[in-house]
Design a protein that fits this description.
Layout lengths: L22 E5 H13 L3 H16 L17 E5 H12 L4 H16 L48 H10 L5 E4 L6 H9 L2 E6 L2 H13 L8 E5 L7 H7 L7 E3 L23 H16 L2
Parallel strand pairs: 3-4, 3-6, 4-5
Antiparallel strand pairs: 1-2
Bound molecules: S-adenosylmethionine (SAM).
S-adenosylmethionine binds next to β4.
């Protein structure tokens, strides 16, 4: 299984920088010109023949008679993941109709020329297949938990760090605010620092909160984000007031990793959700956290 490299390129550099592995650098202008030319053709088999030539070029550089691999010193280049480009070309080759083939060619051209952003995250939607770091499958298969840096896995019942990591990449932008109502050992806030997100966590157990704070401080803070842990009960902590200190009205992502009732007893504190007397009381307590925090 492919290992996730957390030191790889930041997402926003996707357009301009070479990718980490298996990438190919093309003469952008020439490649777009070739795609445009191909898209003027009106015979499906001729289009496919031209695409076969392109496919051959990206595996056998010496066969480049189109000039798409000619890189001028001042020329504009584009770096693409070779496997993704191959699959885009295959999709054109598998097209059953002229319209479909033209649609895929146009889509490839747009992905090279344009950046399509969105309100929720920093992903360029025209090149989403190329983000090695974001798992786009609905089933997240991870070979092993991330144990780098401050992720010491010392706390019983902590997050696999990849969970908050993936959630933040999908649902937030750099500089956004994340609230974790059951922050425990601070996994979310460590990931916040790595990804340049501000993080506020709430934790009932003061000793756990203290250790989490110390570990979070060990994590580099290159984007100078806020990392704050409030010791308290998530059912009554005034989040509005805490965010207000930073001039923020609301968080963009709420992460909740509560005790799963009494499967793990986190403390003897009666405010602790893991000490709820029965399932009904647990659901009532958890509901109170949701009520107060969804109103921010
Ligand atoms: C499953 S753990 C969270 C682990 C965390 N995601 C991590 O990676 O370390 C649940 C946490 O909720 C805390 N907790 C339980 N009841 C709470 C409450 N009412 N308010 C705030 N925290 C609470 C527990 O002390 C425990 O640390």
């Amino acid at each position: 299984m492919k290992k996730i490299d957390y030191n790889q390129l930041p997402l926003e550099n996707l357009e301009t920088s070479p990718l980490t592995y298996g990438s190919i650098i093309l003469n952008k202008e020439r490649f777009i010109q070739v795609l445009k030319e191909i898209n003027t053709l009106n015979v499906l088999s001729t289009i496919k023949n031209r695409i076969i030539v392109l496919k051959d070029i990206i595996t056998h550089y010496e066969n480049d008679k189109e000039g798409i691999l000619n890189i001028d010193i001042n020329g504009d280049t584009i770096s693409l993941r070779r496997d993704v480009l191959t699959s885009e070309l295959n999709q054109i080759l598998e097209s059953q109709t002229l319209e479909k083939a033209k649609y895929y060619i146009k889509r490839l051209e747009n992905g090279i020329q344009e950046v399509k952003t969105n309100k929720i995250n920093d992903i360029n939607l025209l090149r989403w297949k190329e983000y090695e770091e974001i798992i786009t499958d609905s089933l997240w298969v991870l070979d092993k938990r991330d144990a780098s840096g401050a992720h010491l896995a010392w706390y019983w019942g902590n997050f696999i760090p990849q969970i908050p990591h993936q959630m933040m990449l999908r649902y937030t932008k750099k500089g956004d605010w994340i609230l974790d109502s059951f922050v425990g050992s601070g996994t979310t806030l460590i990931e916040c620092r790595r990804l340049g997100r501000n993080g506020i966590g709430i934790e009932l157990n003061p000793e756990v909160a203290q250790k989490a704070k110390e570990l979070i401080e060990k994590e580099q803070n290159k984007d100078n984000v806020v990392s704050e842990i409030i010791i308290g009960d998530s059912r009554s902590t005034d989040i509005k007031q805490i965010l207000g200190k930073y001039g923020i009205k609301q968080a963009q992502l709420l992460i909740m990793h509560p005790p799963y009732h009494d499967i793990i007893k986190f403390s003897k504190d009666k405010e602790d959700l893991s000490n709820a007397k029965n399932t009904e009381e647990f659901l009532k307590m958890f509901g109170e956290v949701i009520d107060i925090q969804l109103h921010i």
